[in-house]
Design brief:
This protein is mostly helical. The protein has a domain of about 140 residues: Tetracycline Repressor, domain 2 (Orthogonal Bundle), CATH 1.10.357. The longest helix is centred in the middle third of the chain and has 28 residues. The protein is elongated and about 65 Å long.
Length: about 210
């Protein structure tokens, strides 16, 4: 589905006063639930409770509104991520990142799964700058695991010789799988069991790589 064209300047008006955070939260929920392509401007106008001229004057286009909504989504969960990364050991941080993901992805007061992962497959329908930002957000998930594992290596709680990137990729993939499973209706209990199993693999995953022969 192509993006709706921007209305001509003569149709635009000054934005009616509204709480930007509140309307972004409403837009976020619509995009999160329906995806980028399936969300119409009519859906957004109805959910946000503002007039079309005000929406275009404030955000310019559906793509720009989507980007702002995703940035809002990331900001909502930033503190949760930072607190997980600040845990004393790499293992505790990795587990906290995954446990927090279960909490967020399976909440009943928000759409299920991860908003970024949910709409990532639709990147081809978006403007290049939005596609780039979405790619960066997805990459940040892997980078969080990689960065924390490297710090664990420096601190001595990750064994010297562990394949950091392989371990980071494993847990980033688990994180993505939690989102997809939650989106498919998997509940908190089963998702938590997946995290428990993934963390049980920690000693094997982080053991030093055997030298090549």
């Amino acid at each position: 589905m192509s993006r709706p064209s921007t209305p001509p300047p003569s149709k635009r008006g000054r934005p009616v006063g509204f709480d930007r955070t509140e309307v972004l939260d409403r837009a976020m929920r619509v995009f999160w639930e329906k995806g980028f392509a399936a969300t119409s401007m009519q859906d957004l106008i109805a959910a946000m409770g503002i007039a079309s001229p005000s929406l275009y004057a404030a955000f310019g286009s559906k793509a720009n509104l989507y980007r702002a909504a995703v940035e809002h989504y990331v900001a909502l969960h930033e503190d949760l991520v930072l607190r997980a990364i600040a845990m004393p050991t790499a293992r505790e941080s990795v587990e906290a990142l995954l446990r927090n993901a279960v909490t967020v992805f399976a909440r009943t007061d928000f759409p299920s799964g991860c908003m970024v992962e949910q709409t990532a497959s639709e990147a081809g329908d978006m403007a290049p700058d939005v596609m780039t930002r979405l790619h960066d957000m997805r990459a940040a998930n892997h980078d969080n695991f990689s960065m924390r594992l490297r710090k664990g290596l420096e601190d001595g709680d990750v064994p010297e010789g562990a394949d950091i990137e392989a371990v980071a990729s494993f847990y980033a993939t688990i994180h993505k799988g939690l989102s997809l499973s939650a989106r498919g209706g998997t509940g908190t209990g089963e998702l938590s069991s997946v995290v428990t199993s993934a963390m049980a693999a920690w000693p094997v995953l982080t053991r030093p790589r055997e030298p090549r022969r």
